[in-house]
Amino acid sequence: MQLKTHEEVRVMRRAGLVVAQALAAVKDAAVPGTSTADLDAVAADVISAAGASPSFLGYHGFPGVICASVNEEVVHGIPGPRVLRPGDVVSVDCGAIVDGWHGDAAFTTVLGPREGEAAPDAGDAHLVETTEAALWDGVATLWTGRRLGDVGAAVQDRAEGRPGPGGEPLEVVEGYTGHGIGRQMHQEPEVLNHRTRSPGVRLRAGMCLAVEPMVVRGDAATVELDDGWTVVTRSGARAAHSEHTVAVLGDGLWVLTAPDGGALELGARGVPVMSLD
Ligand code: MG
Ligand code: MG
């Protein structure tokens, strides 16, 4: 496991802000009638205008700048001609490299209401809110916890602790994890999104981790499509994915892919934010 110096974390912050900017632009562009290839081009433009490089493009042959995963797609969806429709649950994951250092983040959003309906599906809205809350609870635990396993427990407790409308259960996906991040997008250690018997490594200053829960409306069993990338739920249930890259520093956390460094969400959880900006 690679511990980062403040100088290195500052460079990762620059990569993190490029990712934040790319995802904000993609979120604005994600409206019904847009294709996922259009969203990919938006992210590519922002990353290139910032003088950065995409982390995903060419990674083990991945053909996109973003992963775009719609509805029952959980993660690793390939951007393409698919046109987004009202009511779609759209997850976008993006990474960027600045001076050799990576940032990695993802969000999920529900597109405007389906035709003839006044509001987005309440279960989809609950899914997206809960996944985001589980992400922030997991991130906060990087400070309030003692060992990495505490993060997965916090994520799972939040994700599965509050059923959706009508008592519908949510489940975290267990086959895919967060990760250490630095000069490579994926480094040790894995950051699980669920409880295990293993307490995991001790949390300490200098760790940089991507926390990224994936949550499903119902059974979280997944299968990979024949394209070799796209992960979908076996049942066809809808899924959400949220991610941030976070540095553990001596006096607090710094969420490198959040423009405010995590101040709002971590402040609400009593966790100090240490900015090196
Ligand atoms: Mg990611
Ligand atoms: Mg990641």
Characterization of the model:
It is a single chain. The protein is an alpha+beta fold and 277 residues long. 29% of the residues lie in helices and 24% in strands. It has helices spanning 6-29, 36-49, 122-144, 149-161, 263-267, and strands at 53-54, 66-70, 73-75, 89-98, 101-110, 171-172, 178-180, 187-191, 208-211, 214-216, 222-224, 231-233, 239-241, 244-249, 252-255. The chain has a 5-stranded antiparallel β-sheet with strand order 8-7-9-14-15, with helices on both faces. Strands 1, 2, 4 and 5 form a 4-stranded antiparallel β-sheet that branches. A 3-stranded antiparallel β-sheet has the order 3-12-11, with no helix packed on it. Helix 1 runs antiparallel to helix 2 and helix 3 (122-144) runs antiparallel to helix 4. The longest helix has 24 residues, at 6-29. One magnesium ion (MG) is lined by residues 93, 95, 104, 106, 212, 243.
Features:
4-stranded antiparallel sheet; 5-stranded antiparallel sheet; binds magnesium ion; about 280 residues
The largest sheet has its strands arranged as: 8-7-9-14-15
Q: Describe the sheet with the most strands.
A: 5 strands, antiparallel
Separation of the first and last Cα atoms: 25 Å
**β-sheet strand percentage:** 15-25%
The helix tally amounts to: 5
- Percent helix: 25-40%
The topology string of helices and strands comes to HHEEEEEHHEEEEEEEEEEH
Q: Which ranges are low-confidence, i.e. pLDDT below 50, for 5 or more consecutive residues?
A: none
The Rg value, from CA coordinates, equals 17 Å
- Summing up helix and strand content along with how strands pair, one would put the structural category as alpha+beta
Structural shape: globular
List of distinct ligands in this structure: magnesium ion
Instruction: Work out the number of β strands.
Output: 15
Mean pLDDT: 97
